[in-house]
């Protein structure tokens, strides 16, 4: 059976190759996100989560880096590179979004500790109603409703967290027994989300091939650049550094997308769709890097 990261690539390509499948799965996107967050909460050790929150790297440095430093750095870099104004707006809006809800699940899939990415993601989501509207107004001249953002995040995180806490209190032993089943459900939700994000993308690629290629290339460059930045700035073992890279590179653009509503331009929508390719394809690259590093450590 293919590994989890390989299945994610298959999901993206399936949604791209079979538009009808992506369209059919699209209504399940919200449910898939909820299952992602809920399943991750179920698998996190409470004591380890509280220990992570005591680290300044987790409760301060990484959220600020993700929600303020990275968007501003990308904005100034894009302007300095002379990118088209529409692309700069799309790029900044994508990076000012909080880390992807599935990052902790992907980290766990890769064999990494999912505690830190979950903590940083939750803290970043708490900052999002403040930072996202400010950055959107400053660099995209776009007014976003902070209350609407806060409400969406509270329903997602609060609902999933409350249900997970209730189950952990009532059936902690059974959750351990069914940990593989929970992992399978999280992987299934990731696959559903991967397929659903490709709804309409093939048509966009066929009608705007040059713009689509530009967006995909820029999305990969930005994602990999932020992942490399996270890996370089984080102390500690390779797994922890790569986990930080995932947090900085993979963003929940769907949150900003839904908040923008009809204000989303065709170029921005195309770029937002393009950001899904590195999110679902780079875990396979990371898996290969980790395997290679472990082989080199094991060899005499």
Automatic annotation (TrEMBL):
Subcellular location: Membrane
A Gene Ontology cellular-component term: membrane
This protein's UniProt keywords: Membrane, Transmembrane, Transmembrane helix
Parts of the chain that traverse the membrane: 32-50, 57-81, 87-106, 118-140, 146-166, 178-198, 210-233, 254-274
Membrane topology label: Multi-pass membrane protein
Protein name per UniProt: Bile acid:sodium symporter family protein
Organism from which the protein derives: Bradyrhizobium uaiense
């Amino acid at each position: 059976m293919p590994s989890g990261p390989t299945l994610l690539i298959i999901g993206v390509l399936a949604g791209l190759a079979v538009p009808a499948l992506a369209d059919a799965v699209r209504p399940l996107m919200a449910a898939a996100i909820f299952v992602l967050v809920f399943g991750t909460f179920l698998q996190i050790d409470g004591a380890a989560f509280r220990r992570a929150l005591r680290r300044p790297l987790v409760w301060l440095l990484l959220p600020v880096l993700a929600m303020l430093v990275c968007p501003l750095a990308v904005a100034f870099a894009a302007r300095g590179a002379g990118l088209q104004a529409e692309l700069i707006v799309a790029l900044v809006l994508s990076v000012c979004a909080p880390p992807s809800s599935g990052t902790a699940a992907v980290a766990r899939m890769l064999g990494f500790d999912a505690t830190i990415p979950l903590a940083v993601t939750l803290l970043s989501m708490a900052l999002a109603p403040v930072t996202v509207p400010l950055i959107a107004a400053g660099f995209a001249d776009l007014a976003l409703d902070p209350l609407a953002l806060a409400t969406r995040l509270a329903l997602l995180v609060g609902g999933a967290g409350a249900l997970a806490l209730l189950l952990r209190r009532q059936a902690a032993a059974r959750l351990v027994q069914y940990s593989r089943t929970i992992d399978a459900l999280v992987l299934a939700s990731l696959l559903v989300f991967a397929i659903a994000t490709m709804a309409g993308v093939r048509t966009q690629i066929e009608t705007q091939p040059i713009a689509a290629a530009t967006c995909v290339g820029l999305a990969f460059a930005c994602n990999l650049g932020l992942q490399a930045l996270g890996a370089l700035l984080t102390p500690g073992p390779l797994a922890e550094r790569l986990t930080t890279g995932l947090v900085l590179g993979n963003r929940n653009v769907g949150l900003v997308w839904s908040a923008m509503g009809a204000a989303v331009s065709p170029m921005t929508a195309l770029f937002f769709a393009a950001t899904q390719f590195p999110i679902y394809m780079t875990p396979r690259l990371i898996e290969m890097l980790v395997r290679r590093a472990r082989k080199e450590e094991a060899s005499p």
